[in-house]
Amino acid sequence: MLPDFMKDFKKLQKNYSTLKQDLKVFVNTQLILSHKLNIQNSGIVRISGLSIIQPQIYKARKFACKSLKGRGASSGIRVIYAYFKTGGRFFV
To answer: What strand order describes the sheet that includes 79-84?
Structure first.
């Protein structure tokens, strides 16, 4: 994870105690299913119109945080990440 992300993540984690666990679940399920197993996921979309080819930049629209009870995927938390297809690596 990138330093800027970690700084913002620590601030958010103070208000949303389950965020670290939720992010781990997200990476292990949504990202693996979408990129490694090529299972279509409408909650993850590639950001188009960027001038770079590699890495591919994606936005996860459906990121559920347990700390936001009753709101589920529409919790307002969005995750932008880079996916390096050649190495199969993710950077949040």
So the answer is: 44-46, 56-60, 79-84, 89-91
Tally the domains of the chain: 1
Cα gap 25→69, rounded to integer Å: 17
Whole-structure pTM value: 0.71
Residue 81 has phi, psi (to 5 degrees) of -145, 160
pLDDT digits (tens, 9 = 90+) for 33-52: 787 787 777 778 888 888 88
Q: Residue 39: what residue type?
A: I
Domain encompassing residue 87: 3-11+19-91
Q: Is 82 strand, coil or helix?
A: strand
For residues 1 and 19, is the Cβ–Cβ distance under 8 A? no
